[in-house]
Amino acid sequence: MKFVDEFRDDELIGRARDEIDRLADPSRHYRIMEVCGGHTHAIYRFGLKDVLPPNIELIHGPGCPVCVLPMGRIDDGLSIAEQPEVIFAAFGDMMRVPGTKGSPLDHQARGMDVRIVYSPLDALKLARSNPDRHVMFFAIGFETTAPSTALTLMRARAEGVANFSVFCNHVTIVPAIRAILDSPDMRLDAFVGPGHVSTVIGCRPYEWIARDEGRPIVVSGFEPLDILQAIVMLLRQIAERRAEVENAYRRVVPWEGNRAALRAMADVFELRPYFEWRGLGFISQSALRIRDEYAPWDAERRFVVPSLRVTDPKAAQCGEVLKGVLKPAQCKLFGKECTPERPVGALMVSSEGSCAAYFNYEHRKVAADSATAQV
Amino acid sequence: MCLAIPGKIVELLAGSATGALVEVIGVRRKIDLGLLADDMPVPGDWVLIHVGFAMSKISDADARDQLEMLRLLGESEAATAEVTGYGLGDEDDGQVRQ
Q: For residues B52 and A121, is the Cβ–Cβ distance under 8 A?
């Protein structure tokens, strides 16, 4: 069953497939990483692996913000919210991510005031409407999301909202790509560049990947045809021994990015010297913290944070899966102790996590196919 | 959370420098245009929305494609829930939502 068949542009997709078959050298193996979790989701949902020749392997990258957040940060955020005046506000994606003593939803069930918000501005609004409480927004996300948190903090300061703070976990994608390229067990030939991160940062920050590392990178949209065309462009670069940054998502991504968004980020955030990533360890200058000018709205300065380092559950192999060393189904817990309904690791929580994507599309498909075969 | 939702600008809100009313999948909600300060959209323009902020302007055709893709990704419900959730407290002033 090929999900991609239900999509429009059948003819164009067929042409992209032909082009991939023509360009891929059957005598070699290609390892292409899609950096962004949105792409991972789309690849599984549309069954794109089924339309690629077997010697093209897609490796799922670190671009799922929920998945790369170490458990210690979740514990730290929840420990602040143990104080009765604090309201813990976060996006829905965060709510089922397990900390040492359970997820934010588990804490809510035990009496913590936990609220889902869909925009950081709504967390600020919650603070305004609850003047006797303190609202802490647990911020996650790459450069797609960080500018929105920045504008929210600028507004909090301009309006003098004193009972609002941000627990900042914003991370930046380029140092993570560097860490992966530096990792000795990682052999990659090319990258599908993130779509919406690139609307903010543009394409220039990827130039070193092509220039210094000799790896082609093509920024792509999320439609099946977008992703297949990005793979065509990558294979063409490899065949022609070129390594360049190409933008196949020009309808949304400007080469220079979004200057207003970059300004907002630069005004409010600065780089942390280092930050821990689940699976990748400590990566220098890979995350954002709140500048001194915004210290009163920085939850990490306003509250005592335990800053505990927590190791992941031993049996879970999230780190290896995150680095692409293991496939999701090769983890010992996959589909047994760890399912989307009862996730042990964060990769099983978010629809952008490779384990949840694999479980929802591949695993269920295999289960359904074998059930059909038995009939 | 990387996927962006297309919306059509219905009205720029008076009394707010960057607030706008958009229509998304039949729902009208307030969003913020602060990230497009260098190239402000006008009513009738389509934008891609992420966590309550417009991230970029897109064409009508791309907006339609993006809506179709959200449907095929099985994300239409999540998108509707997200957009409906914008403006928490507008009606009920901070009730717990799940």
A: yes
Q: In this structure, what token pair is assigned to residue A342?
A: 């009862």
The structure tokens listed for A280 are 């990748």
The Cα–Cα gap between A231 and A3 comes to 18
Q: Are residues A302 and A324 in the same domain?
A: no
Residue given tokens 């099983």 in the structure block: A348
Helix, strand or coil, per DSSP, at residue A289: strand
List of chain B residues with pLDDT < 70: 1-2, 88-98
One domain, residues A261 and A360:
no
- Cβ atoms A119, A64 nearer than 8 A: no
Say if residues B76 and B34 touch (Cβ distance below 8 Å): no
- Number of domains comprising chain B: 1
Question: A80: helix, coil or strand?
Answer: helix
Q: Are strands B46-50 and B53-58 parallel, antiparallel or unpaired?
A: antiparallel
pTM of the shown model: 0.92
CB contact under 8 A, A252 and B58: yes
A185-221: per-residue pLDDT in tens? 778 999 999 999 999 999 999 999 999 999 999 999 9
B56/A252 CB distance under 8 A: yes
User: Kind of pairing, strands A30-36 and B19-24?
Assistant: unpaired
**C-alpha span between A255 and A246 (Å, rounded):** 9
Do the domain assignments include residue B98? no
| Residue B38 belongs to domain spanning | 5-85
Closest CA to B49 of B14, B80, B71, B17: B80
Number of domains in chain A: 2
Report pLDDT digits (tens) over A35-70. 999 999 999 988 998 899 999 999 999 999 999 999
Return all residues near B95 (Cβ < 8 A) that are at least 6 apart. none
> Does B62 sit within 8 Å of A251, measured CB to CB?
yes
> Containing domain of residue A115, as a range?
1-312
ipTM confidence: 0.89
Strand A269-271 versus strand A288-290 pairing type: antiparallel
Give A-chain residues touching B56 at CB under 8 angstroms: 199, 252, 254, 258
Nearest CA in chain B to A4: B72
The number of angstroms, rounded, from the C-alpha of A187 to the middle of its chain's C-alpha atoms is 21
Give the distance between the most distant pair of CA atoms in chain B. Answer: 38
